[in-house]
């Protein structure tokens, strides 16, 4: 078995047809999980190519969406401790992906932004995303974009509720130590 065949077994390929034995919600959940696993595999490959941690690629994504963030904002969005973000930014700065700019109004505050190299990496990941979206007929893309935003907003809200419940200790047996 080649390395690629072994890797293909770890990340399921997208099913081209719905599973007739699943109800629509279960089938959509399976499809979403497949998509998330494919995305995670791409992140791992991207991180390896850049000699960075996978968490660093999440920081790139947050910066791609926001354009600039303070270190504190990046820590919050990435779910990292401020001390972890300092190390992450050190790695990304050494890799030439981000720059930190001290804010004149508050010299303790730094704005984080992408460098030209960081934007070039986003072009590569953008091509990967476009290849996936290119499989959808062009006339269906606006509806898909609206649906993805709706799903993302609902998942964000549910994730925040989950985090609050975990912090409050109200999640039940599977989450108790």
Number of helices: 7
Q: What distance separates the N and C termini? A: 40 Å
Number of strands: 3
Strand portion, in percent? 5-15%
Q: Mind describing the biggest β-sheet?
A: 3 strands, antiparallel
Write the layout of secondary structure elements.
Blueprint: H1 3-10, H2 24-50, H3 54-66, E1 68-70, H4 71-78, H5 82-94, E2 98-103, E3 106-114, H6 116-133, H7 141-168
Antiparallel strand pairs: 1-3, 2-3
Helix pairs in contact: 2-3, 4-5
Explain this structure.
65% of the residues lie in helices and 10% in strands. With 177 residues, it is mainly alpha-helical. The protein has a three-stranded antiparallel sheet. A hairpin with a 2-residue loop joins strand 2 (98-103) and strand 3. Helix 4 crosses helix 5 (82-94). The relative contact order is 0.07. Residues 1-13 have low confidence and may be disordered.
Defining key terms:
177 residues, mainly alpha, 3-stranded antiparallel β-sheet, 7 helices, 65% helix, disordered N terminus
Short description:
With 177 residues, this protein is mostly helical. It contains seven helices and three strands; from the N terminus they run H-H-H-E-H-H-E-E-H-H.
